[in-house]
Amino acid sequence: MPKTAIVSVVDDDESVRISLAALVRSLGHIAHGFASAEAFLASGKAEQTDCLITDVQMPGMSGLDLQHQIIGRGGNVPMIFITAFPDDRLRDHVLAAGALGLLAKPYDGDILVSLIDTALSSRP
User: Is the pTM above the cut of 0.70?
Assistant: First the structure.
């Protein structure tokens, strides 16, 4: 029997973090929420995370900085970005670095679910 997937959510907006975690749990996965990229990295959960959903703009370390930290540490967790300020240059940047997608807030839940399914489809 395959292990339950772990999806980590990093967003400084508590209401977004709670709603994303609830969505992940409704899909039958374990959800961990973090108010900052620094808290996520310090938690030790990065190595256990099967999919990471992160905001782009946050106080302190941004979602882009988080992506670079994870890649720099040799991590390969599938990442989905959400942002209130989407633009093509940002989308191109995160996708070129390996992200699965960049969704604009308010995001389409069906598209997010599809991206989560894509992220988890290749895990062992």
Answer: yes
Domain ranges for the chain, please list them.
7-85+99-121
Helix, strand, coil % in the chain, rounded to nearest 5: 40, 20, 40
Q: Which CATH architecture fits 7-85+99-121?
A: 3-Layer(aba) Sandwich (3.40)
Encode pLDDT of 63-79 as tens digits: 999 999 999 998 889 99
Residue 106, preceding bond cis, omega within 30 degrees?
A: yes
